[in-house]
Amino acid sequence: xxxxxxxxxxxxxxxxxxxxxxxxxxxxxxxxxxxxxxxxxxxxxxxxxxxxxxxxxxxxxxxxxxxxxxxxxxxxxxxxxxxxxxxxxxxxxxxxxxxxxxxxxxxxxxxxxxxxxxxxxxxxxxxxxxxxxxxxxxxxxxxxxxxxxxxxxxxxxxxxxxxxxxxxxxxxxxxxxxxxxxxxxxxxxxxxxxxxxxxxxxxxxxxxxxxxxxxxxxxxx
Length: 221
Hints:
Blueprint: E1 7-10, E2 17-18, H1 20-33, H2 41-47, H3 52-63, H4 69-87, E3 93-94, H5 98-107, E4 111-115, H6 120-129, E5 138-140, H7 153-162, E6 169-173, H8 176-185, E7 189-192, E8 209-211
Parallel strand pairs: 1-4, 1-6, 4-5, 6-7, 7-8
Antiparallel strand pairs: 2-3
Helix pairs in contact: 1-4, 3-4
């Protein structure tokens, strides 16, 4: 990190909030609507982080005949959206120290953005439901721009909105998607080991630093 930081861009699922329970509940309700069996939680964990479309396609491919996945995508999407909207935040758990580290970062003068692949409607609602919305100047969802992480566009657009250079904005995430987006955008990047990372060890994702706890980012003074 060669330049002083002026902003921090936080991923949401697996970084600030453990939302695996929300995903599993919404997907199981969707699958029940489609007369399919519930999905294993371990599989869902590997599919989180690349947007709802990827998540739904992966679950459909794993729970029934592959040759009809395309035909089911539209009804599955609508069912999932409806169930997730109803369940959003109900089974989520804020990671220890999340609220405090956001407040400490802002107290140090950093501008904060949440940059997630979750649809912005759901991201905004989740942050409000768990009491984390207030510190953020900006929430950028997976549908806020034409491309989502690991493309650098969401990070670059968020930096522009915050009026900071990418090299002055720390990306804080939990997966290789966050690293790839940050590297392409020119942002330094830190990962948290408590997230999902598509079921792969986070140590090999290529971050500048890997922390086990959020409070290691900006320790208490």
